[in-house]
């Protein structure tokens, strides 16, 4: 039996705890002013901004732990963010705003989970035989960068040797298409 996953268990627990704490601060900051009907914009801002600052600080450490111990991919970060925020919104609506959580809210939550499952495993593409697009420059879509320019920048950052920046040139979209 492979016990290597158990070595990362404390880091996963730290990561998920920090993630939930950061998103709790974020969601609370977004909802804290709602019961007060006569707040000015400045008063609402003063109430909400400390939560945004705390979220930023905690989320910085969360991402650092996730990256340092290679716990999750950026896509999984996004999935986790949406799921936790949706869950927290339901809890805040129910217990702070005293609103009823409807069956449709619960169904929507499971639809979101199902959508992530379909997206992550390419189910529709596999069922209908639609080719799954490959990402340029990398076989792992979670490590693919948004643009050629950012890919070049990150590659240069990974290189430990000196780089001659005079050799780097921009390629226009038309030129790149002509090469292929």
Write the layout of secondary structure elements.
Elements: H1 4-7, H2 9-31, H3 41-68, H4 74-95, H5 103-121, H6 123-128, H7 148-158, H8 173-179
Structure in a nutshell:
This protein has 180 residues and is mainly α. It has helices at 4-7, 9-31, 41-68, 74-95, 103-121, 123-128, 148-158, 173-179.
Q: How many beta-strand runs?
A: 0
> Quick check: average pLDDT?
80
DSSP helix fraction: 55-70%
Q: State the distance separating the first and last CA atoms.
A: 47 Å
- What percentage of the residues does DSSP assign to strands (E)? under 5%
Shape label = globular
Uncertain stretches: none
What profile does the largest beta sheet have?
Answer: none
The structure class reads mainly alpha
Q: Rounded to an integer, what's the Rg over CA atoms?
A: 22 Å
Number of helices: 8
Order of helices and strands: HHHHHHHH
Structure in words:
67% of the residues lie in helices and 0% in strands. The chain is mainly α and 180 residues long. The mean pLDDT is 80. It has helices spanning 4-7, 9-31, 41-68, 74-95, 103-121, 123-128, 148-158, 173-179. It has eight helices and no strands. It has a domain at 4-101. Helix 2 runs antiparallel to helix 3 and helix 2 packs across helix 4 (74-95).
Question: What keyword list fits this structure?
Answer:
single chain, 180 residues, globular, mainly alpha
